[in-house]
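Changelog-linked ticket: coenzyme A example.
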Amino acid sequence: MEFIEVKEEHYPVILQIAHKTWPVAFKDILSTQQINYMLEMMYSIKSIKNQIYNLHHKYVLVKDKKHGFLGYISYEVDYKPLVTKIHKIYVLPEAQGRGIGKILIEKAEFFAGEKGNITLSLNVNRFNKAIQFYERMGFRICGSEDIDIGNGFLMEDYIMNKDFM
Ligand SMILES: CC(C)(COP(=O)(O)OP(=O)(O)OC[C@H]1O[C@@H](n2cnc3c(N)ncnc32)[C@H](O)[C@@H]1OP(=O)(O)O)[C@@H](O)C(=O)NCCC(=O)NCCS
């Protein structure tokens, strides 16, 4: 397994993985209209560039020799004092359940710790089964929030934190 810090040449790979993973992950949770709206908002080349250069998100891609690129994580160190926020974590449907998500969280934790942060934080849809994955990784629900993302759509999220130090 190889981990690659994302450069501009990789942006299309991120878009591809997102477009393959989202419709499966959110089919029972969000309408097709909301999935398409959110994909358009978060996963254009322009938006990824903005996240990386202006919002200081770091993206790491995971790749294996046989299957190519399988997933990614994005995180932001010092989102708040001592807190790293995981903004995105997606593994291709056919590669889920093989320990890749766990390694991606461990990577974010390592880089967060290296910069002196002590907590990982993330938002997850309140109906997403990824909640159980996060709990397995040591996160706990510590709040919930509804975020208006325009066009009449809401993100209905839990906030989950993990203090790893
Ligand atoms: C959520 C996601 C990133 C997890 O990655 P993954 O590679 O499938 O998970 P892993 O194989 O690393 O699982 C790690 C551990 O969590 C457990 N786990 C994973 N998904 C689980 C679930 N739905 N319910 C209960 N446990 C789960 C695994 O059994 C494993 O436990 P173990 O350490 O005892 O073996 C991945 O499934 C995914 O991309 N899902 C769709 C997109 C999504 O919802 N992303 C999150 C948006 S907030």
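Closing comment: Example verified and attached. The beta strands are 2-5, 58-64, 68-80, 83-91, 119-125, 140-150, 153-163. Residues 21, 25, 89-91, 96-102, 124, 128-130, 132-133, 136 surround coenzyme A (CB under 6 Å).
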